[in-house]
Design a protein that fits this description.
This protein has one helix at about 10-35; strands at about 45, 60-65, 70-75, 80, 85-90, 95-100, 105-110, 115-120, 120-130, 135-140, 150-155. It is of the alpha+beta class. Strands 1, 2, 3, 4, 6 and 9 form a six-stranded mixed beta sheet that branches. The structure holds dinuclear copper ion.
């Protein structure tokens, strides 16, 4: 059997399809490698039932680690963040370190790139520099139960 006849319009659509796929992969590549939107890395683990008795999560808090750097150790639980209020000077880089003792939660700070998934059994880390002053909301953006909409905190960048 020789080559099947392919109408010109068919070839054009095939080219458009191939080009769309190419554009999609380029966009995906830019997001993944250029903007660092990767699945949570550093998969350190912790037993969910041991969260409240294991350092540093037994005493979650914000600590200054350098001239412009902070470490925020936080517990996301039904239905609050501990601590639920953080305050830092503008220009600070915050290294977040979170876990959950119960179900999957999220930590999302609108108007920033902070969008973290908090999975019981795992320690999720994320680093972000706050270049703009503001009174930011910290929201849970993974449905975690009846009090999900009440689960929020505050971040003051002064
Ligand atoms: Cu925690 Cu929704």
């Amino acid at each position: 059997m020789s080559h099947a006849y392919m109408p010109r319009s068919e070839k054009i659509w095939l080219a458009i399809g191939g080009f769309s796929l190419f554009v999609f992969l380029v966009v995906l590549g830019i997001l993944a490698f250029g903007m660092g939107m990767n699945p949570p890395g550093h998969m350190r683990t912790i037993a969910p039932e041991a969260v409240h008795t294991t350092s540093p999560f037994q005493e979650p808090k914000l600590v200054q680690t350098g001239p412009n750097t902070y470490k925020a150790t936080m517990v996301a639980q039904m239905f609050s963040f501990v601590p639920n209020e953080l305050s830092i000077p503008v220009g600070s880089t915050v290294h977040f370190e979170l876990t959950s003792p119960d179900v999957v939660h999220g930590l999302f700070i609108p108007n920033t790139n902070v969008n973290i998934m908090v999975i019981p059994g795992h320690i999720t880390e994320f680093t972000y520099t706050f270049h703009s002053k503001g009174d930011y909301l910290i929201l849970c953006h993974e449905y975690c139960g009846a009090g999900h909409h009440l689960m929020m905190g505050r971040l003051l960048v002064q």
